[in-house]
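Structural biology now treats backbone shape like a language. To illustrate, our science desk offers a sequence and the tokens encoding its fold:
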Amino acid sequence: MDNNWEVALSSLTQLTVSSNANNEPVTIHGGNETLRCVGVGTDAAVFQSINVPNFAFKLYAEDKRSKIKIEENVYQTIGDSPFFSTCYAAYDTLLVLSYEEGPTLFDCLLQGIPIPFQVVQDVEAARHYVRERGLNPRDIHLKNILLQNGRAKIIDVSEYVHPGNDFRWEHLKKAYEDHYDLIEGRALPFWLLETIRKWYNSWNKHFGSYEEFMKKVSKFTSFK
């Protein structure tokens, strides 16, 4: 694919992104009528341009830009895979990625969109794939997985160079297997999901184990 994404670069200079404390999502400053925000994370925000809609532009907070080259290298290592986005270019402030259709799993829970078990199987296969390439699949959670034609697409690989297991995917997989049948097809309120997310981000400070954390969640939500 040629580099026709360059027509969007000037509009992206009208935006800046700043990070926030406590692992909260970034804040976006400025704007341009040709751009729409399609995702917000703790390091960057992702935009789509109406002029080149096949691309996604991941614009990083200034204090997170050291991750740009790292993430580009991860995409190069992953290569061509149906489980991941494609990275076309890296600039000082952003990555150019393929734009991927579909709601995140977080959005699926908000909207009551059923999440098939095939998604779990796909993420397991994707994790195996990247391990074979010497990477460490970390930071896989509801907002980093898209539901795309009944399959999974993982859209953030920035943590794959770090050692250790954060167990986020293992915990999510177990929650799916143990509890998802009780909420499948139900639209869950945003405040509920955000409360659980914040609890999870600090669960090891307030709970003795993941099982204890899930008991609290189950009691709070009446998932029995």
Notes: The helical segments are 9-12, 67-78, 105-111, 117-132, 168-179, 190-201, 203-206, 210-221.
